[in-house]
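Reopening: structure tokens for the alpha-D-galactopyranose complex, inputs below.
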Amino acid sequence: MSSSPPKFKAAVIGSERLQNLKTTFELKYGGPPVFYACAPGRVNLIGEHIDYCGYSVLPMAIEQNILAAVSVNKSETIQLANTNTTYKDFTVSCSEEIAIDRANPKWYYYFLCGVKGIQETFGITRLPGMSCVVDGNIPPSSGLSSSSALVCCAGLVTMEANQKSLSKVALAEICAKGERYVGTEGGGMDQSISFLAEKGTAKLIEFEPLRATDVQLPDGAVFVISNCCVRMNKAASSHYNIRVVECRIAAKMLAHARGLSFNRLLKLAQVQIELEASLEDMLSLVDEVLHPEPYSREEVCKVLGITSEQFSTELLSANTQDVKHFKLHQRAKHVYGEAARVLHFKNVCDSGPAESIQLLGDLMNQSHASCRDLYECSCPELDQLVDICLKSGAVGSRLTGAGWGGCVVSMVPSDKLQSFWRAVREAYYLPDSCRAAIVEQSLFVSKPGGGAAIYLEE
Ligand code: GLA
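Re-run output (same inputs, fresh job):
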């Protein structure tokens, strides 16, 4: 079993940021916080849109995080405020059931997802009063997992406020489940790395059972994150859930074609396990069984022998009820191909051949092409930025996170960092005044950061 998140003295944060947060807290609530909880965002190096299919992914935590100052009190309410005043205050009574309005995503719902997850785990009927101020420095809607970091931070806050103890693995699973209250059917990568990250190492995250293994990145290259400045909020659109649904249907169609009982099979990885096949075999099976033309509902129902009603209730989610066409071949091809690239990436890191930087870069480039062409989760700005990064000296460059906007991650030989940075700045950011205004927080080097932690006032 994994250990609980670490506890440190608040003095170790020692920063101006902590001091400002404390001052905001005192001004707002008239007393000092008793503890802080912190959960990092992440950048996924490779393995996009495959966690919810049951496949391993390879992220690292970034230094940017969500930090909350907290006091536990007799107010009988949960009071939430944010140092960024565009995010409005919110208060909910501890006697009310926590309600999350999926149709109207607000910042504090992510916090409430974490609270609700812990409340349900322990069957807490009445939560204690809590006052919190949240301070985040992860760029929002940028594919760096600011929302999951908020859920994880809130889960940790609620665990500590209720004097409970949970392992990092349990917290990650509870927060991944909790976040689904906002309506997105996420796979668990973001919450897992937020809790299981360790400074200095990327992680291979495997699911069922959830575990994390160190992946030592090669010397001689750095990872640079660049934001394409198109905002993507996955809870506000159905793109993400459509992909989850397409993968679910593809899994059932493949299972059915091979005579498996498809009722309980929901993930593409489960089909591979049942068939005891390799990923190469699965790629051939996709070509053999699924046609590249989009499938209609009627066709899927006919093949699987299910009613349209079963299709709606068992396969679709609330915000995908109106989808008419499903690109099963392309999505399944991406998933099995990407799952193989993750394992290849990990093997190259472990064996460290002389040409590893080039090999890893090639895998990242293949991953981007697959996200763009087969999974269709890129956008013109992301593609343009990837091209610019490659022309500016990156050996590999790809969209990271859910896509449809947000960030690109590039692998850059250390000796080319300065010229890379200058060239990307000039080609992508400076020509556009909106992008130029935020270039400092949009283009930065990222090293593997540590996981979520609690900080106690002495
Ligand atoms: C989001 C989800 C993750 C994962 C990525 C895509 O970040 O929260 O679970 O599916 O998209 O790889």
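The chain has 16 helices and 15 strands. The longest strand covers residues 58-73. Marking as resolved unless the reporter disagrees.
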